[in-house]
Amino acid sequence: MAPDDKETAIALRVMKFGGSSVADAEKIRTVARRIADAKESGDDVVAVVSARGKTTDGLVADAMEISARPDPREMDMLLSTGERISCALMAMALHDLGHEAESFTGSQAGIFTDAQHTKAHILEMQPHRLEESLKAGRIVLVAGFQGMSKEDKNVTTLGRGGSDTTAVALASALNASVCEIHSDVVGVFTADPRIVPGAAKLARITHEEMLEMAAMGSKVLALRAVEFARNHDVRLHARSTFLPVEGTWIIKETPDMEQAIVSGIAHRSDEAKITVTGVRDQPGIAAAIFTALADALINVDTIIQNIGIHGHADLSFTVPLVELTPARDALESVRGTLQFDDVITDDQIGKVTLVGAGMKSNPGVAAKMFRVLAAEGINIQMIDTSTIRISVVIDRRDVERSVRALHDAFDLTSEAARRANV
Ligand code: ASP
Ligand code: MG
């Protein structure tokens, strides 16, 4: 690229604004001002907006009022409207600030997905119209959370929280220098500040760590968006809509990066535990059980099977609380064939997770975590690890106490401050 080629030298920023950032007219005008500032500083801007406030929840409720089993295709026609509203209103606000701005639906933006309505995956990006609009000097606005199925050309949505994914996919396809995710929190914290008042904002975190944090309960960024950012090497900046301060950078791990042993603690209280007892201890049984669950689109996590005794074993795993009934149904449907003894469920569990890239090279983190929980008299029901994560399943009532005790024991407040300064 020639250094004097002005057009390609301009930086492109993708800025995403969450639902609470555009909840009312005043907030839309505030956000429009931020977008205008970015444009006036000389950057090209593509802004992705979510549906206003609780609009999507309202649309889901509208559908449920009409039908107990709304057709998924029609559900997507309905759900996609929330983001279109925000997007058009934002364009109007920008016009009033004297800017040329143009709004686009997901399909106009060239976001092609598979046909899994209400939880579609992006297959391909063809943002030609956006490129033309940028070239013409306009601010581009894209309705988040939606696309068009590649084969049938139907409107699809990307799953709840999917506007983050729209922003990351656009940042990748348009080669943006950064994807900024704006919301009402100022970044990613060492733990939920509502539980740990001393929790600190992380200056930076790796894609891998953020993926674990999001999967294990951190709500700052949608899991699939982080996954997309990791796979396509998109630099993310999670920051506040209303405060002009640096947030948290989510970046690729580099060899010279100093790794925290524990970067943060995530927790969730929206899961349930299922134990299938008396499962025959022979090849193919686990395959059959988890195929039945997968066919019912159940998201299974943390699987534990104990050693077989007298040819039978118990199998435990966790599922999202909202999927407990369908999971039970799926298991009952294969009980006759597989002949296990029983299905025992517990809807009172919680999960607490330590995440840190430095765990890879530092032994003893699990031992310390378990000692801290033991000192609090907290019983561990299940344990699950990856190279950079340790999760425990415990009683839901013990979750907040565990998070506080672990945050304290691993001294995460001073750790975050120290790392922010290196
Ligand atoms: N409006 C959608 C939701 O509430 C998508 C999003 O906000 O990202 O899930
Ligand atoms: Mg939202």
What does this protein structure show overall?
- There is one protein chain.
- The chain has 422 residues and is an alpha/beta fold.
- It has 2 domains: 182 residues, Carbamate kinase (3-Layer(aba) Sandwich), CATH 3.40.1160; 156 residues, VC0802-like (2-Layer Sandwich), CATH 3.30.2130.
- The chain is 36% helix and 25% strand.
- The protein contains 13 helices and 20 strands.
- The protein has an 8-stranded mixed β-sheet, sandwiched between helices. Strands 5-4-7-8 form a 4-stranded mixed β-sheet. It has a 4-stranded antiparallel β-sheet with strand order 13-18-20-19, sandwiched between helices.
- Strand 11 and strand 12 form a beta hairpin.
- It is globular.
- The two termini are 33 Å apart.
Question: Which CATH-level-2 architecture of the largest domain?
Answer: 3-Layer(aba) Sandwich
Which molecules other than protein and nucleic acid are bound? aspartic acid, magnesium ion
Task: Extract low-pLDDT stretches.
Answer: 1-8
CATH topology label of the largest domain: Carbamate kinase
Strand content: 25-35%
Choose one word for the global shape: globular
Instruction: Provide the residue-averaged pLDDT.
Output: 94
Total domains, how many? 2
Record the SSE blueprint.
Layout: H1 6-9, E1 12-17, H2 25-40, E2 44-49, H3 55-66, H4 72-96, E3 101-104, E4 111-113, E5 122-125, H5 128-135, E6 139-143, E7 146-149, E8 155-157, H6 163-173, E9 178-183, E10 204-206, H7 207-215, H8 223-231, E11 236-240, E12 248-251, E13 264-268, E14 271-280, H9 285-295, E15 301-305, E16 312-320, H10 324-338, E17 342-346, E18 349-355, H11 365-375, E19 382-386, E20 389-395, H12 399-409, H13 412-420
Parallel strand pairs: 1-2, 1-9, 2-6, 3-6, 4-7, 9-11, 10-12
Antiparallel strand pairs: 4-5, 7-8, 11-12, 13-18, 14-16, 14-17, 15-16, 18-20, 19-20
Helix pairs in contact: 2-4, 3-4, 6-8, 7-8, 9-10
